[in-house]
Amino acid sequence: MGLLPLVLPLDNQGQGWRTTKRSHLVLKPRKSYLMLSQLHRDHFAPHASRTFEGYYTRTETEDRATIVIIFCWVKGAKKRGNLVMVLYDRAHAHDHGQEADPGTRRSLPSFKYTFYPEHFDVSVGDYVPDQPQAFTIVAPGLGSMKVSRTTIEYDISVPERALRLRLVLENHVPWSRSRPLQGPMGPILHFSRLLPLNWHVRSTQSAAACTLMHAQTTIHGTGRAHVEKNWGSSFPRGWIWAQAFSADGKHTLCLAGGTALPGVQAYLVGYRSHACPDWDFRPPFALGLGWFAPFMHARHDRAKGEFELSVSTWCRKLHVRIKAPPESFVGVPAPLKDGHEPDFGQESFRARVAIQAFGRRRPWEQWGLVEDAILGQTVHEDCGALEFGGPSLAKC
Asked: Which of 91, 201, 342, 387 has CB atoms 3.0–4.6 Å from 347's, for a disulfide?
């Protein structure tokens, strides 16, 4: 499918634009279209009308290292309007005398690079109802993110940092198999234009193949990837995010939430396994208004690297306990109104995630255990992801 170098006034058709140093979008209208249902468009594609757009991919390699890539822009930012981040967190089993994966040959030290390019060149393919939309994001001098209907390709090259990364993702597993474009927000998407922050997950588990060259070391490997994005006006002042695979790849968890408005706590949660194939939790159940939260309880302790969430509907209940070593957190930028704020979030890739799922047929019956599982854990180490965001949560 071809990419068109034009922009339409509504963010649902073939389009293209450039973000400048201060992240203004230069739009060239072609013709008008009626607003399409938010449930029928691909929300992974860029939204030209929103203030910020951010793409996040976390790849867990076979030896349980993590590769994170972020492409993000904030329109009208006063500083640091465009962001490309590349992070590699080495497999910490090496620290305990375990051998590296034979395919990697040599262990690569952890690193994190944040770049603030002058602009992005964005091209978006034709809109087809209920189909993924192709698009390409290019950061000149840094690299690109190319999305087709079936694959996602990252190509990063920064010679002055001796960095070269090629990552290809395919065989995506959508959040909802019955409604692949819907994502974690579900019916809330109807109100996405009114919300300050929106969240979409393109794939809860994709097959990944990568080649990474850095500091005269080259690794080739495969793994699995979680692919998501946010869009809206700005990140909130505080949030919690977590994501994990089970060792056998048969269980996945992803959640995000925190302070939606003053006095309001809200979460979006998705747990997938054979026993719980489509367990989603979202407001009004995953919601707390001050002290009133009849279906949800959340607790966090940043100093200990702990987070606990219990959320239920009338007939399903999920209890999540996550713990990561406090010293394992690393700072990541976040898109705020005036631009990207360095280290506004703190993320660990060494979290262990304990899951208990309960069910019942009728609301008045007792809960029965459906599943008890551990995610983000291998024989030698923990490798789930946990993030605390905002000044009140990111600091100990």
From this structure: 387
